[in-house]
Design a protein that fits this description.
11 strands; 2 domains; alpha+beta; four-stranded antiparallel beta sheet; about 280 residues
Length: about 280
C-alpha cells in the first residue's frame, strides 16, 4: 500500500518517538469519544473518497466525520430522532467538500466507531450543555450513501446501511489535510460569545453601518436594524476583525446556502420593501 503526503519526514520523526502505551491510548480515544487532531494526525482520502485516519505508528483506520454538537430548545431534547440531527460522513462527499471550502472545517469531528453511534453534545442556544450522549445514533449522509452506491451498486438505504461492513473494506489512500479538525469530547458549541452584541455594534459603528458588499447605508437609526455582522468562516466564536464583515441583511442572506434562511425573517421582507421604495424615489 502506497501513501502519498507532504509531511512524511515529520510523520517519521513522530513514529520513532511513540510508545505502545501512547498507541493504545490513541486507539481507545478514537474508538470512543474521539480525539483532537494533533501535529501529525491527518485524515486521508482513498481512491474512492473514503475517509481514513492515521495512528501514531502509521496504522490506517477508517473513520467517520460528523458535527458533534447541536443547539436545541431544551423542551425538544427528549423528542429528537436521529433524522433530526446532523448526519455522519464516510466519504469526502459534496457536503463535506462544500463545508471545507467554505471554511467550516472546524465544525467537524472524527471517530472510528463502526456501530453508527457517536459521542454527542446537546447545547441550548446560549451554549450551555443540556446533555452529553455517549452513544447517540446518527444517520448516514445521503450524499455519502449515493457515492457508495455509485462505487459499489447495492440496495443500501439510510435505515439499513451497515457501517461495520463498510469499515471492513480495504483501500489505497491519498493525502487529505484536515489538520484543523477538532475531535470528540472537546467539541465547541458554535454559538455567539457573551460579548458578541458589543463587538458587533462597535464594528458596525467603526465601518459606518455601510454594507461592505453592495454599499447600502441606513439613513436612520431605525434602519440600522437591517445591518448585520457576518462571521466569514462560520465560526461564531471567532471574533477577529479579519473574520468579520458588515453586510446589509440582503447581502448576508446571499452569502451561501446556509444563510438563505434569513430571507424568511420579517426584517428581511421589510428591508426589501424599504430598499425598493428608496430606489423608486431616486
Amino acid at each position: 500500500m502506497k501513501l502519498i503526503f507532504e509531511k512524511f519526514e515529520s510523520f517519521l520523526n513522530v513514529v520513532k518517538k511513540i510508545t505502545s502505551a501512547e498507541l493504545i491510548e490513541a486507539m481507545s480515544i478514537l474508538n470512543n469519544e474521539g480525539k483532537d487532531v494533533t501535529d501529525i494526525s491527518n485524515i486521508f482520502v482513498g481512491n474512492n473518497a473514503e475517509l481514513v485516519d492515521i495512528l501514531p505508528d502509521g496504522t490506517l483506520v477508517q473513520v467517520n466525520l460528523y458535527i458533534a454538537t447541536k443547539n436545541i430548545d431544551r423542551y425538544t431534547l427528549n423528542t429528537l430522532l436521529s433524522k433530526d440531527l446532523y448526519k455522519y460522513h464516510i466519504y469526502k462527499c459534496s457536503t463535506i467538500s462544500q463545508m471545507f471550502t467554505s471554511g467550516r472545517k472546524h465544525r467537524y469531528k472524527v471517530n472510528s466507531r463502526n456501530d453508527g453511534t457517536f459521542f454527542f453534545i446537546f447545547n441550548d442556544y446560549n451554549g450551555k450543555i443540556l446533555k452529553e450522549e455517549k452513544y447517540q445514533k446518527l444517520d448516514i449522509c445521503k450524499n455519502c450513501l449515493k457515492k457508495l452506491q455509485n462505487n459499489y451498486p447495492s440496495d443500501n438505504d439510510v435505515a439499513n446501511f451497515n457501517l461495520k461492513n463498510f469499515h471492513n473494506q480495504n483501500y489505497s489512500f491519498f493525502d487529505f489535510d484536515t489538520s484543523e479538525l477538532e475531535k470528540g469530547e472537546d467539541a465547541r458549541p458554535n454559538v455567539y460569545t457573551q460579548q458578541w452584541r458589543e463587538i458587533s455594534t462597535q464594528l458596525k459603528t467603526k465601518r459606518d453601518y455601510t454594507c461592505e458588499s453592495c454599499g447600502w447605508k441606513p439613513n436612520s437609526n431605525y434602519q440600522k436594524r437591517f445591518v448585520h455582522t457576518h462571521h466569514q468562516n462560520g465560526d461564531k466564536t471567532n471574533n477577529g476583525k479579519e473574520n468579520l464583515k458588515v453586510l446589509c441583511i440582503e447581502c448576508h442572506s446571499n452569502v451561501d446556502r446556509y444563510h438563505t434562511r434569513i430571507k424568511y425573517q420579517d426584517n428581511y421582507k421589510e428591508f426589501i420593501k424599504v430598499k425598493r421604495f428608496l430606489i423608486s424615489v431616486t
